[in-house]
Each structure stands twice: as structure tokens, then as C-alpha cells.
What does this fold into?
Amino acid sequence: MKKRVFAALMAGVMGTMMFGTTLVSAEAETPELKGEVYAFIAASLNNAMEELQKNFNETYPDVEILYNADSSGTLQTQIEEGARCDIFFSAATKQMDALVDEGIADKDTVVDLLENKVVLIKPKDGETKVTGFENITDAANLALAGEDVPVGQYSREIFENLGITDEVNKMEINEGKNVTEVLASVSEGSNEVGIVYATDAASVADSVDIIAEAPAGSLQTPVLYPVGMVEDKEASDEDRAAAEAFLEYLQSDEALAVFEKYGFTAYVTDEQSDEADAAGETEETTEEAAEDTAE
It folds into this structure.
């Protein structure tokens, strides 16, 4: 009996030791991150990124994420002039490509992560003769982002492709320094119509109505949001590790679900789409074969 008791006690001790070892190993797999991460984000990302910061800090409470939200063109200039930045999340590829070409952004880390849509809006229940981009000049005035702002660049590309640039330029235009200013001008009723991203309109659905999306073919390229690492000479090793972890988190399924809640869609390349379709066809074929076998 004593031998059995002793053996049971030893088994318990060994089990406890092994369990303790397992805990230590599990903890070792999750590094304790801390430091500061300077993230320069397009203004249209602000709401989604604030939620993502809270989620990330639940796992890594000692990482401080400092956001600078503005137009991508303004952010690009600030980065070029030496502002401290670890992650750049642009509302267009133009600004990111420029930083990559200058050797400031790390090309190997850049990912085209999200896609958005350009829409024409008016104040909630506001009256206007405008029914789409094609007759936008029927409005008394227009809230439009500046030429260095991605949504402003997309807007002007739409005008050009619709052949209405000259007519639009004759309008009374309230030019905003970023998409947030354009949204505010319309939601407050200062302008009859304005052009923003679909996600911006969705964020104040109680204040604005969407008149129309950009017509098919009026934009030659999708509205992409690339994100990547920027060279930060002031960052410590801890800061860099934290920034890399946050960048990885932004690409996770959990983060993409948050982005989708705010109206963005995950960008899928044609190649990825073809692979997904092929995988779906293979799965269907396998299921049909299994059903035939069962019969």
C-alpha cells in the first residue's frame, strides 16, 4: 500500500513539474512586448484603428501606439521631413510608392491590405438635383479634398474620365485638407454635395446620404490602402519589435473583421481570387465524389 501511495505521489509531482514546464514554454512563445509605436494613418482609417489599438493592447498592454491621422499626402511630407514614424498606412499607393523609392519605407514589408470606394454624398435629407457624378455640376457648391489628398486625386480622375473637369472647376468649391474636413462640410450642411470614401459616409450615416458610387470605369485602379514599415532611426529594439508585431496584427483575420465592420474590404489580388475559385471548385468536386461513393 505504501508503495502505491508513494508511486501516486511521485506521479502527481512529476505531472505538476511537467505542467509547470508546459506553462513556461507557452509563456515563452508569447514575448512580452513594450515600447512606443508611431503609426501615421490616413484620416479615413481613424475609427477602425482606434478599436484595433484597444484590441491589440489587451494582449500587449505595455505597447503605446501613437496615431497621427491626416491626409496621406500630408503624412508623406511629414515623414520625408524627418517626423518619427514606424508604420505608414496610406489611402493610396502613390504616397507609399514614393517613400519606397526614396528608401524610407521598407518595400519588403509593404502590403496592399484594404480596398475602399469613392462616393458622392449630400446632407441627410438635403435637397439637390444631383443624382450622380455625371451631373455633379447641378449643385450650387461642392466639398472636395485637395489635389495632394488621395480622395481628391481619385475625384479628379473621375472628373477627367467623365469629361467634366472644366465644368467642375467653374463650380464653387470648398477644398478640404483631408477627407475628414470634406465629410464635416457636408454633414454640417455647409455644402450641397461632397466626395468622400464609402467608409467615411458610413461613419456618419445619421448625418449624410450617399447619392452614388463612382461610375464603373471612371477609376482605372482600385482604391487601395497599403501599409508598411518606415525607417525610424530613433526607435529602440523594443520599439521595432512592437511595431513589427502591430503590423502583423493588422493583417490578421481578427483585424480584417474590424476593418470590414467599418466598411472596408480586404484587398484580394486577381491571382488570389483565381486560387480561391480553384480551391472552391476542388472542394465541390471532392464533395460530389464523396456523395457518389456514399450512394
Remarks:
- DSSP finds eleven helices and eleven strands in the chain.
- The longest strand covers residues 35-42.
- Confidence is low (pLDDT under 50) at residues 1-28.
